[in-house]
C-alpha cells in the first residue's frame, strides 16, 4: 500500500487550516463557548439564504427533525413517509415521537424518492393509520422530484419536511432547496456540506407550526462546556489523524472516541431506534462560529464540488459497467458526494485502499449505518427493492473542498485498477 497522503471521503472532509485555527482560537476562550453573537448571526445569514421562513440553529439536524415532528403532535400510528436508502437519523426521530415510518422506494437513476411508489404506499396504508407527514430527502445533494411529490402531498394534506442535510446550496428550478416544503432541516455534521462537527438548523415556513414551536425553542438549553470542548477538539484531532492516517492516526482517532475525548456521530441506541442521550438544544456560540466560517465559503465549496464532479463524469462516461449520477435539467446537484454504481463495490474499495484512498460507503445498506437494526427501525426487507439494489452497488467518490484534480486522478486510477481485477463483474456476496 502506498504511503501517500490519505484521500478520505468522510474524515473531516471540509476542514482546512482556517478551520483548525478557528477551533484552536475558540478552545482557549471557554467564556465564549456557550453564549455569544454567532448563533443569532448564523440564523440571520441562513434566513437570507432561504427567505420567508423562521430559522433556528440547533445542536443537530436529527433533533431539528424531532422538534418539528413534536410540534405536529403526531399520535401513535400516524404515518410519516420517508425514503429508504437513508441514514438512521431520519427514521429515528419519527420513532422517538411515537409515529410510524413508512419507507418509500427510490428512483434508481437519482437515489431520490419515487413518486409512483409513494402513491402505492399511500394506497396500501392500513385503515387505522393516518398519513400525516412526508419527508423529502435530497440525496447526495440532488433535489428530489419536488413537483410530483408536492402535488401528492397537497392531495393527501401531508405536512412536507425537506431533508436538506446533503443539499445546502442545491437548487430546484432556480430556487434553493429548503424553500418548497412546510419546513426543512439542514445538518452541519462532520461530513456534511458545511461542518460545525455537530449542528444543524430548522427552517419553518408554516406559520401555525412556527408559532407552536416558538415557546419550545425559547426554552431550549445550551449544551455543557465539556460537550462543546469535544466538538472543538474534533477539527484539530481529526485533521491530525488524517495527516498521519497510515502511521497510526486512524487508531488514535478511534481511541479518542472510545475514551470520550471526542464524541461519536451516532450512538448505539440510535442504531436500535432509540433516542440519543443529548436532548434538543441550541447550537452553542462556538460551534455557530465554525458553521458561519464555512457557510461563508459555501460558494467556493460548491464550485469545487462541481469541478470534481465534471472531471469524474468526463473520465468515467465511457465505462459501461460504471453507472454515473443522472441530473435532470431542472435542478443543480450539490455533489456532497459523487456516487457511482458498480458491479462489485468491495473490489473497488479494496483497490482504492491499496492506493491510500478511503472511498465513501453512503449507503451500503438500505438504512445506514451497516450495523443498524432494520427491524427496530421498522424497515421490512423487500419493501423497497430499488433502494436495496442501490445499496449493494453504491460507492462514493470524494468531492470535498480539499480534493483537487491530482487527487481525483488518483481516485480514478483506483477505479480503473478495480475494473481490471478478476471477478469485477460479479456482484458482492449477499
Question: What form results from the Cα inertia axes?
Answer: globular
Q: Which value, in Å, is the CA radius of gyration?
A: 21 Å
Total E-strand runs: 16
Strand content: 5-15%
Question: What is the class of the domain at 29-218 in the CATH system?
Answer: Alpha Beta
What gap, in angstroms, lies between the N and C termini? 28 Å
Order of strands across the main sheet: 2-11-10-7-6-3-5
- Major sheet summary line: 7 strands, mixed
Mean pLDDT: 95
CATH topology of the domain at 29-218: Aspartate Aminotransferase, domain 2
Name the helicity range: 25-40%
Structural class, please? alpha/beta
Q: How is this structure best described in words?
A:
Helices cover 39% and strands 14% of the residues. The chain is an alpha/beta fold and 430 residues long. The chain has a domain at 29-218: 3-Layer(aba) Sandwich (Aspartate Aminotransferase, domain 2). Strands 2-11-10-7-6-3-5 form a 7-stranded mixed beta sheet, with helices on both faces. A 3-stranded antiparallel beta sheet has the order 9-8-12, with no helix packed on it. It has a two-stranded parallel sheet with strand order 1-14. Helix 6 (146-156) links the parallel strand 6 (131-137) and strand 7. Helix 1 (17-27) packs antiparallel against helix 8 (225-243), helix 1 (17-27) runs antiparallel to helix 10 and helix 8 (225-243) packs antiparallel against helix 9. The mean pLDDT is 95.
Short synopsis of the structure:
The chain has helices at residues 17-27, 38-50, 61-71, 91-96, 115-123, 146-156, 207-218, 225-243, 249-258, 285-295, 298-316, 345-354, 385-393, 405-419; strands at 7-8, 54-58, 79-83, 86-87, 100-104, 131-137, 159-163, 171-172, 175-176, 183-187, 200-204, 331-332, 338-341, 357-358, 367-368, 394-397.
